Amino acid sequence: MLSVGIISVDGFGLIISGLSAANISFYVQTGAEIHWRQAHWFHRDAASIKTLLTGLTGLVIGEIIFTIAAYVLTPYIYNFVHAGVSVFQYLFAPLFSKYWKWKGSKSDNNPYEQVAIKDWDEESNVPETESMLGLQSPGPAPGQPTKTGTTKKVISIFVASAATYVLTLCVIRPYDAAYDFLSQTVVITPFVKPPTRTLTSSFYLPDLPGDYSWLYNHTAIGPTSKYDWMPVEKTPGFRDWYEGFNGSVPQHYDPNLDPIHLSNLDADIIEPLRETLKDGKIKIKHVFLFKLESTRSDVFPVKKDGHIADIIRKSYSGEIPDEVEDRLANLTRNAEILTGVPSGFDQHDFNPRGGLYASDAYTGGTFTLKSIVASVCGANPLVVDFNREFFHHIYQPCMPHIFNTLNKLSPALPKNSTKSTDSKDFKSWPWRSTMMQSITDDYDNQDRLTPAMGFDDKVTDKTITKDFKKKPGPNPEKYNFWGYEEHKLREYFLDALIQAEKKHERVFLTHLTGQTHHPWKMPIGEEYEALIASGLWNKNDKVNRYLNTIGVNDKWLGEVMDLLNEAGVADETLVVMVGDHGISLLEDGGVTPNDNPHVKNFHVPLVFSHPSLPPITLNNRISSLQILPTILDLLVQSSSLDAPSAKAIQDLLPLYEGQSMIREPVPEAEGKQDWQFTVMNTGGTWLALRSAAKPYRLVVPLVPDVEWRFSDVSSDPIEERTLQSFNLKPLLKDVGNVHGEAAAEWVGEAAHVAQWWVAENWRRWEYLPEN
User: CB atoms < 10 A from the CB of 117, how many?
Assistant: First the structure.
């Protein structure tokens, strides 16, 4: 690669060296590799370009290093390659000499004259034909040792051995599609169309033992149920009740047809919550859903006996200094209050707000926009690269769709009318859904996804900029290319609540934070504090920057709790907080979950906070897909809806795949497991899954150039001993040897479930892979 990195006349070498520099720069910046086949999917919006430019410095440095190295090494590499080619000529030319002579004699119109045998190259004193072939070099003077002959023998042996080795491997090594991809020219890879996938062959799976007839040739798409409360006119998000795909009969997801669905809606309410709901103490007027950018579970809060504290402790040679421990004690105080989990630093009083905290929750997608779809819509994201959900059929009504439909239901009004705002009972008030973020929504078509999910209003960095221009004084400064710090949203939050009280409306507010996104810049006026000792290669500096922004975000969450009190609705607002994805910075240096299967990119905090709820920690395995069903179930069970709305919710609840978190979980029943899927960033490379019944994780490759990956997180919580293979059968053998046959059987079933589920996922989204 270096040999072609310079001064190629046609510029091909510069392209190769540029791509190589990009690979290295991307790895240094993110800890991940570029998958060039995704280049044709790349979205060219301004936010994406600005994200790429964060690695520009590394790219330039890498290109300079390659150019200098290529300039120095090119002659030596060229001569070495030339010598190897000469050996092949020397070895194989005699085999074809008779053919060449025979072919030459058959030619009647040979334009060349025969070269005389004694036609010598005057400069080298070697016959010109031999000189051109590179088979001989000027001989040594009489009496001198023949070093050239010895060198030729060594090179001949080396080249012949290498060629024999490669040919032998080609014969005896099993075929693997990964080797085909890895042998492609990097310049061509972005333009090569990936292998065609269909609904029956979403990815390759070898023949495995077992009967899976209960799974294949089944689909959960069936005729829609009829509801008497459904508005006559077509309602956004409820297309499946009015028309079908391409004019077909209306169809929708039917859990009764889903071969892997397990419901717990018939199960009892969990014991600590049962009496509270019966007493009618819980009132839910408003619902806030926070998506916490790049927030992993073990920073919410940071615990003294946790993994992060251990890493910090090691950086200080075994003991955290007192001043650093004081900073850590105050870093995530509001996360302690919200989760009901003390940090253990014991520097302050601990008064939990109350609510449900899921200690083992995984995100539905490690790509932020896909994660939002999983939480807001209760639907598994689409298994394709990047945000294409807005372009296809979101197969479940999202929460804004549901609330907008509830607005049309009232016992005192005819269908298709809106609810009255005169009543003092908030249960009959109409809902208003708003998306708020202080950062841009230009990235990868988020501005088109937001209305597709049914939101009435939105606030973004553009809104903030526009509104500040109307005010006297200087405009606020963005803290990085994403946008403003979260504090700039305070007046928008407060105004939404005040206006809702005046207009007798209920607020469903979804908020995406941005401060904790790489490159982890502090808001203007804030300074970094030392939380971890400096280390080599700048890794600890990245950890320190990340933890500092986690602390800034924690202060913002406390500010939100304060403004709920200021608006007088703290006792009537359900606040749900969940990480969009984690970050494996502390384990493998990754600053993005992009194509990174490490478990810390999946494990996120999940909290349902309400002051009238008792503090409850749920230790069962939970997916963010369960957020929507749990919110709806809580609204019904807390009697926070009027009768028509409660009836509609009770009809809709069974249609969602996720189980309700306020009921006893059903991890396994009738030989089926509660499978939980995570569509990995960017969507089309890997799929991760686990089951609520077992502690295992399987990462499934959807393309041939990445590996299968298995781990048991009960014995290996930070995945230091994963098993990986490009082929499933060797992985099954390794899993059986290390973890036992039961684990290997689980992997086999998970692989079949994944293959069926990917094709089913495309069916539900009405995505046609052939197109």
Answer: 8
Lowest mean pLDDT among 447-461, 503-517, 536-550: 536-550
CA distance 666 to 106: 82
Give the HSE-up count for residue 100: Cα atoms under 13 Å, Cβ half-sphere. 6
Neighbouring residues of 546: CB distance < 8 A, sequence distance ≥ 6:
294, 516, 520, 583, 585
- DSSP class of residue 511 equals E
The residues that bridge with 708 in the sheet, in sequence order, are 725
CA distance 395 to 401: 12
- Find the DSSP H helices in 107-186: 128-133, 147-172, 177-182
How do residues 718-731 score in pLDDT, each as one tens digit? 999 999 999 999 99
**Secondary structure element (H or E) that encloses residue 87, with its range:** helix 56-106
Can you say whether residue 505 is alpha, beta or left, with left for phi > 0 and alpha for psi between -120 and 50 degrees? beta
Distance from C-alpha of 180 to C-alpha of 372, rounded to nearest angstrom: 36
Pairwise CA distance, residues 577 & 85, whole Å:
64
Q: Quick check: 109 and 61 in contact, CB under 8 A?
A: no
Using an 8 Å Cβ cutoff, are 371 and 580 in contact? yes
CA distances from residue 759 to 388, 409, 637 in whole angstroms, order as listed:
16, 36, 36
pLDDT at 642: 96
Helix count (H) and strand count (E) of the chain? 21, 20
Q: Mean pLDDT over all residues of the chain?
A: 86
Residue where the block lists tokens 């709920």: 564
DSSP 327-377: HHHTTTHHHHHHHT---S--SS------EEEEEEEE-SBSSHHHHHHHHHH
The residue type at 164: T
Distance in angstroms (rounded) separating the CA atoms of residues 762 and 755:
11
Element (H, E) at 557: helix 539-566
Query: Tokens 């990174």 identify what position?
Result: 596
| Domains observed in the chain | 2-102+115-191 (no CATH), 264-670 (3.40.720.10)
288 touches 631 (CB < 8 A)? no
Identify the helix (H) or strand (E) that includes residue 16.
Answer: helix 12-30
Q: Please, are residues 696 and 743 in contact by the beta-carbon 8 Å criterion?
A: yes
Distance of CA 1 to the CA centre of its chain: 31
Q: Tens digit of pLDDT for each residue in 476-510?
A: 899 888 999 999 999 999 999 999 999 999 999 99
CB 766 within 8 A of CB 391: no
30 within 8 A of 23, measured Cβ to Cβ: no
Judge contact between 602 and 294, C-beta under 8 A. Answer: no
